């Protein structure tokens, strides 16, 4: 049965998509925004050549001043946004979340917080199974023994995509995270909160591995970059006729 407003377009919600093996393998953990933020701030870092005194302090030889249009790499892009979370909207109704009646919005806050933490050496399920095997004498290897055997690997945060409609899906790293918990349940779980997030876009060149999450990250960056180029070209088509009204020569 159609809803009360069948002609209204379906609202696309933003999301953070984590590709991590911390849970049960490389299954994406999709954190859909309950309410799209009203504003989204974007900024770019413009490349600046090092000052001569900085080069001298670093023991480097003075280099010729670069031309004014020099840009050795793409300008890093960043986003800042604030998300509103409210458990009352998801306790009942079609989009109800059963756990909301117990933990409020704590589960969604925790899912976003985990994007800041390095991935473990094994998934949550794998770690539990390993603990069981050790407890029953199945020859499991402890974490300390694995480290002693030289199995230590560099710890990294998971691959995360910021999805903001079909025209903007980019790999990001969280650069700031702040939570304002505004109301609480009887068990002191937050039932309403505001989460402020800073994100830095990671380019395809920053993913050098051959894992599935890194393949997805590279593809997402290139897809969004191509869309930006197409939109810029569309503006070019519409602006050719305006040239005479801007330049007096």
User: How would you describe the shape?
Assistant: globular
On the 0 to 100 scale, the average pLDDT is 81
Q: Structural class, please? A: alpha+beta
Order of helices and strands: EEEHEHHHHHEEEHH
Question: Can you list the strand order of the major beta sheet?
Answer: 2-1-5-6-7-4-3
Total strands: the figure is 7
Low-confidence segments, given as residue ranges, are 125-150
Write structural notes for this entry.
The chain is α+β, with helices and mostly antiparallel strands and 249 residues long. It has a domain at 15-46 and 70-123 and 152-237. 29% of the residues lie in helices and 22% in strands. It has helices at residues 52-57, 88-91, 100-103, 106-113, 124-135, 143-148, 212-239, 243-246; strands spanning 15-19, 29-32, 41-44, 77-86, 159-163, 169-184, 190-201. The chain has a seven-stranded antiparallel beta sheet. Strand 6 (169-184) and strand 7 (190-201) form a beta hairpin. The longest helix has 28 residues, at 212-239. Mean pLDDT is 81; it is low at 125-150.
Give me the secondary-structure topology:
Blueprint: E1 15-19, E2 29-32, E3 41-44, H1 52-57, E4 77-86, H2 88-91, H3 100-103, H4 106-113, H5 124-135, H6 143-148, E5 159-163, E6 169-184, E7 190-201, H7 212-239, H8 243-246
Antiparallel strand pairs: 1-2, 1-5, 3-4, 4-7, 5-6, 6-7
């Amino acid at each position: 049965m159609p809803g009360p407003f069948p002609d209204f377009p379906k609202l696309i919600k933003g999301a953070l998509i984590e590709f991590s093996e911390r849970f049960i393998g490389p299954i994406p953990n999709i954190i859909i925004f309950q309410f799209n933020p009203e504003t989204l701030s974007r900024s770019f870092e413009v490349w600046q050549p090092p000052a001569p005194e900085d080069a001298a302090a670093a023991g480097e030889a003075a280099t010729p001043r670069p031309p004014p249009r020099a840009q050795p790499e793409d300008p890093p892009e960043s986003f800042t946004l604030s998300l509103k979370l409210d458990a009352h909207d998801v306790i009942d109704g079609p989009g109800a979340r059963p756990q909301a009646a117990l933990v409020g919005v704590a589960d969604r806050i925790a899912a976003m917080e985990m994007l800041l933490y390095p991935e473990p050496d094994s998934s949550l399920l794998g770690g539990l199974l390993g603990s069981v095997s050790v407890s029953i004498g199945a020859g499991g290897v402890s974490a300390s023994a694995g480290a002693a055997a030289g199995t230590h690997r560099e710890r990294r945060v998971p691959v995360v995509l910021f999805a903001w409609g079909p025209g903007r899906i980019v790999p990001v790293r969280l650069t700031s995270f702040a939570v304002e918990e505004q109301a609480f349940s009887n068990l002191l779980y937050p039932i309403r909160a505001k989460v402020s997030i800073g994100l830095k876009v990671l380019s395809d060149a920053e993913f050098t591995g051959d894992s599935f999450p890194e393949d997805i990250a590279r593809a997402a960056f290139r897809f969004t970059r191509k869309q930006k180029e197409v939109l810029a070209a569309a503006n070019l088509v519409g602006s050719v006729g305006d040239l005479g009204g801007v330049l007096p020569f």
